[in-house]
Amino acid sequence: MQLHTLTPDLSVSPQVMPADMDAIKAAGFRSLICNRPDGEGNDQPLFTEIEQAAAAVGIGAHYLPAESGKLSDAQGWQFGALLASLPGPVLAYCRTGMRSTTLWALSQADRLPLAAIIDAAAGAGYDLRGVARRIADTRRTPLEVAEAEHDVAIVGGGAAGIAVAASLLARTPDLDVAIIDPADVHYYQPGWTLVGGGAFQARDTVRTMGSLIPRGAHWIKAAVAAFEPERNAVVLEGCRLVRYHELIVCPGLKLDWHAVDGLAETLGHNGVTSNYLYHLAPYTWELVQSLRGGKALFTQPPMPIKCAGAPQKAMYLSADHWRRNGLLDQTDIRFYNAGATLFGVADYVPALMEYVRAYRIGLHFGHTLTAIDGPRRVATFSRMEADGSRQLVEEPFDMIHVVPPQTAPDFIRASPLADAAGWIDIDPATMRHKSWRNIHALGDAGNTPNAKTAAAARAQAPVVAHNVLAALGRVAGEARYNGYGSCPLTVERGKIVLAEFLYGGKVAPSFPSWLIDGTRPSRLAWLLKERILPPLYWEGMLKGREWMVQPELADTPAETNQPA
Q1: Which sequence spans correspond to the domains of the chain?
Q2: Is 487 a catalytic residue?
Q3: What's one Pfam family here (predicted)?
Q4: Catalytic residue at 307?
């Protein structure tokens, strides 16, 4: 926990955790203000979790969410009014502390000299010079002044961002590359399913961001607030500006916990869990171990979501544990899927259905989770009827694993880069933006019709790296992405159905069938997932080593508007 003092009555900090409350109380704080909207990060506890933990130690917590780069004068006024009404001292937090600092500055614009505001922020470690004109009430953003300029700017330091930066620098070590991301830590998210199944420890899925930034890349530790593609610029939180020659956008996606009524209030309690959050994957395993019979529900929202197999991976590993411990007969397992099929690639469904029957799982298609009453332990689903109408269905549960609806991040959906659905509008083969030729995208935020998996990002990174270098005149030819994705479906502890496919659901195995038949459960595939893929991720993908994913080059450049 990092505390930064702005005034004797107000400090700011990056994201706090429920476990920090005792230390916050010991530091003398009596009130908390949360300025970070729920769902910005997969390691972020929901405000209700913070509120409950704060109340347990006698601290009042208040929710004043502010979207990065869209702070209004009204929000500044609200922050000031809230600060004046609360017992102090007060701790305000967001992702990095920058939004909280900016809101304080806006609230003080008519009370303190501008120099005093800038100096107080600087003393706390926050540079507000980019919003000086805004604080001075000129209502202007200084877009003509750039903080930096780079050959390539990469928005997002997740799997896709680090991988593409590493691929660029492996090809052209002298390239001026900047990665823009405010996070201090990086997560191996494919490991969270195994954490929830008791096969991995959560701590083994985490490394510091600083240890992963490729040698030679600049790390701009800030959040992106907006895009100005006509100026070849991105605007950072605090109105700082970064210009680029080529831009790569890969910020991941947003988990929309508030799309399900009551979910945010009960998540992490009352038997409600999700492997899609770092700090809740261990809770999944606790629930699985403690269940001694009863009803266990597993949900899948409408597509698109990251790793479409993850909802049922959690279900199979849980069922396998109950089977091994003689509890399967006492456990009613049900899978509620908003879609119409068990898995999107038909070749893998027969093997999965064998496990569905063996675990006696009740399949309920066309069911979308709409609400959860945690204290009552009741989930409400909207069920699609044959005539197209919908009916609400209530189901009691002893535990429920929830996968939330997912969208592109807010700053992407509101940007000129987005399509009508809010995703980055890119060509599915070249990964180039359809309107801005010096912008490429990869990873979960793009609108390509492939599965949103780490394996897809690994295959996309060399394609984007090559095409960006071609645009800069460093290489010739055009690379194409064929839609490759992979989903290791953990059907039991020790066996996996290794699904690999291209655009259109075409099966694309990486191994001969005598070694790993992806359509059948395999012990070797489990060893690949457990032992090989984590080091391949850390030491291969994130280091620019393109083992088995060298990009395919087209003979002549050409744009495509349909999947290959």
Answers
A1: 4-135, 148-253+408-554, 255-407
A2: yes
A3: BLH_phosphatase
A4: yes
